[in-house]
Write a structure and sequence with these properties.
Elements (H helix, E strand, L loop, with lengths): L2 E6 L1 H4 L1 H5 L6 E3 L5 H9 L5 E6 L6 E14 L23 E16 H6 L17 E4 L1 H9 L3
Parallel strand pairs: 1-3
Antiparallel strand pairs: 1-6, 2-5, 3-4, 4-5
The structure holds a DNA duplex.
Length: 152
DNA sequence: GCCAACGTTGGC
DNA sequence: GCCAACGTTGGC
């Protein structure tokens, strides 16, 4: 099983949106970056994902969700009324991918970004690298464990 | 295929 | 709200 981290603005879709309807998967749409898209394609059912809250008051890792449906064409790329509409994409040749995610748990406390930056063993995590804007990234087993140990 | 201009991300 | 860093676009 692989591990991942996905950034989100909690005002739009945070861990609490998963928690309030734990049996309802949420479609992760709107990723419009090729490197992130490629990671989405690699995700498999059962993979666990850290949910990271960005651009908000409390920045950091807030919880865990899991992949319940592997990559398929992002539905909003075909909807002209969507902010994520892509006129250069087509049903025949879709450009962007989504996965469906379900709630697993909130962490006992949020792990703030500056704490993650200070941990040894996370130097290679794209999240803590200066200037990284990648919104979907792999997390190694070692990195996953190091992060979870902070709240266990 | 280079690279300047532009738009976006995201911490502060 | 600022702005640095990054990704994308488009002229040449």
């Amino acid at each position: 099983m692989a591990h991942w981290l996905m950034k989100t603005e909690p005002d739009e879709c945070g861990i609490d949106d998963f928690a309030k309807a734990p049996d309802t998967p949420i479609t992760w749409d709107g990723v419009r970056n090729y490197q992130a898209r490629n990671f989405i394609k690699e995700m498999a059912v059962g993979d666990e994902v850290f949910i990271y809250h960005s651009s908000c008051k409390h920045i950091g890792i807030a919880g865990v969700v899991k992949v319940v449906k592997a990559a398929y064409p992002d539905p909003v790329q075909f909807k002209p009324q969507s902010a994520y509409y892509d006129e250069k994409s087509s049903v025949e040749k879709p450009r962007w991918q989504s996965v469906d995610l379900s709630f697993v748990r909130k962490l006992p406390r949020l792990i703030p970004l500056d704490e993650l930056k200070a941990l040894s063993g996370l130097e290679d995590l794209a999240l803590v690298k200066r200037g990284s804007r990648l919104s979907v990234m792999p997390v190694s087993n070692e990195q996953w464990q190091i992060i979870l140990e902070q709240v266990s």
